[in-house]
Amino acid sequence: MAKFTERVTSAWRALVRRANSRLPSLRGTRTSAGVNVTPEQSLQVMAVLTSVRLVAEAIATLPVSVVVRRGRDRVAPSPKYRKLVKLLTVQSNPVQDAAEFWRVVVTWLLIRGNAYVFVQRNGAGEVEALWPVPPTDVTVLRTPTGQLAYKLSHDGKETWLPVEKGYIATDLEILHYRWFGTGPEALSPIGVARQQVGISVAATSYIGGFFERDATPETVLTTANNLTDKQWERLVAQMEDRHQGFENSHQIAVFEGGAKLERVSLSPADAQFLAIYKLTEGKIASMYGVPPHKIGDLERATFSNIEHLSIEFVQDALLPPITRLEKVTQRLFDDEEMRLKFDPKGRMRGDTAAQTAAYAAGRQWGYYSANDIRAMEDEPPIDNGDVYLEPVNMIPAGSSPVQRDGLPPVNIPRLQPTQYRALEQTRRSAVDDAPAWVTRVERTLADFLGDQREQVDAAPSDEERAVWDELLAEQLAPVLAGVVGEFGSRQAETRGDVFIAAQTANWVGAVAASEARAFNTAAIRLLDKVGDATAFDVMLESVAVWAGRIVTRGGAFGRHEGAVQTGATGKRWRSGDDGMHDSMHGETVAIDAPFSNGAQWPGDLAAGADNAAGCTCGEDFDY
To answer: Mind listing the pLDDT tens digit for each residue in 221-238?
Structure first.
């Protein structure tokens, strides 16, 4: 029994080995058509060349940008990414612009299945250049920890890289774009479909040889018996004189001696090569998601479906490689919310009707302004071109724009111009936006009053007052720095940038000392008036007002400094609920110029106590 089991097992193993040995290798070049096919040689097949060129050129001509997503907002990248953005959108390395760079990367991706880019960095880790590396010069390795490494075997002449030959790059130095596959290296499209490509190569060679060697006459004239030389010459002359040429067409043919005229056509086998050739081209194009009409096969293209075929080209041929390019390239960004974006809408640049319809819809429904459209057409802005229109019937559910008789006029914010609605929505002071900081400042002031109440029962001397000011300033400084840092960071984040709090240290120290001096002055005056420690209890009731003023002033400065650090060019005064600066509402000046009241920002002590105390105004910034 055991021997029988062993024999069955041995037979099964032999069968499996034979079956595996008969599976075609996806990395080979030999085909059943008897020709060798390599990725580079496959470009001699017109269907391969046309499909690869169409996809690579289409992607290379799309608008490329780098955006930062902050919730629903899209902001510009931080200035520290300026060089990297230029490499991805303008000039990738000293010898290649961005369009050529992406064209090369996509071409290798489509014929080799793998595209590699060496990331050249400086000593600080910043990206200096992006160099495409031919897949034939890259060997993928696996480290003991499971990470991938790449051995570069460039020759330094045809392919130049800023590292020596044999250099082993880490996965941080290589961007590896993969086509389709399951392993660390993707499959080569030409390797997978080499049988179809081989058939196309063989059919092309056969047709070329057929026309080169073919000696088949178009017309054959046969006779029942052999002809003498004179009879042969007379018969040929009769054919040429009476039937050769356009002017002799359709004349009656009369032949003597049983002669017959026959037309000769291609054999069915030879004619079948045309169908085979066309079928093979269609399969090659479908491998890349390219519709047949894009490679010149208009057999199934009609006026009604050509638009949908073009849409399929974007969806099936362009979006898959675009997605790979965007996802892999994102590894260059430290900010997780940064995105490389290829915009397929760039395909409409040649379609005036479709592009005009898209602009008209955007303008009608309010998500494009006139200047937005002009910017996309590289035209300069126009006056009053930043207004966004809205259809009159687009109002919130349950609201009605209808004014009924006998009712007073109703102010519906939804129907106000966009810029005024935005202004109303942002009329909030720092106190409203940061209640936690107000509480911390209140606690700091209250704790200070409690400490002083336990130590003194009369007005302090000048030396003691200086100590009071110094102690309170030390306690207020870190809280005030936190307020400035939070509001400065909020403003910087709207531009996708980072706020540098260290640059505000001098202002925080000076304002903390000023606020401490003002608070202690009020406390000492009350202490002189009351005459005992109960003055501290009375002063304690006003710490909320003092805290609100300190947070409002620190928040206004933080916003202003955040705008300055992120490149703001202008600022616009926004009056607060206190109404003390309503006459300045909407006043616009340069970012480094003071407003008409002498303040650089709302609450600026440089404008004097009358303008700073109790001010809850804000600013809007222009970039």
So the answer is: 777 777 778 877 887 787
